[in-house]
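Below is how a single chain appears once it has passed through the pipeline. First comes the sequence as given, then the structure the pipeline wrote out for it. We keep one example in the README because the format questions we get most often are answered faster by looking than by reading.
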Amino acid sequence: RLDPYYQHVARHHAELEPAFAELIALQSAHRQAVVHGDFSPKNLLVTNESLTLLDFEVGHWGDPAFDIGFFFTHLVLKWLWSGRQADYWQNLTVAWEAYATTMATAITDAEWLAVRRRGRQCLGGCLLARVAGKSKVEYLSPVVQEETWQLGCVLLGDSGSEALPQRVLAEKVVQIAGPCPKGLATQKLSQKEIRQKALGAGP
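Resulting structure:
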């Protein structure tokens, strides 16, 4: 998974090579868990009674931070594609809070801090890869592609020792992508629209 995502971008954007090299080294040094490798809402089968994770074709023993970055890349991209609608941001924040609550009870505070930091860098790397890697998304306008690229660069380079709380990530997204357009911050979609677009049925 590292070649089509991180290494491909690094080969074509020399200015990002040191940051990607650091991230790849971190991932190689933290092989701690089973990693799905394609952890996305598209691979979740949801019913009223259960949630089932599908498609373990690229599963491997590695750094769990990759799954964090990969999954939240999908949600961030959908949020940016939507024009930064509040419903999409809510999808992102609810998913993060659920994930964080579970992880905080499963590992130590120090481990969770480290995973969050690497996960944030993986989010940056995956965002860049979906714009310039081997597996580009096709539904982003040129303007949103540029917003995604800038946000990815900021997050990839954010390797400080302290994990940032989510509100700071939100501030970074707003700083790079701009505030929600007037009228969209409170716009509500139907539950059917949210489900379809969040799971990838949109453009």
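Residues 109-132 form the longest helix (24 residues).

See the next section for the split statistics.
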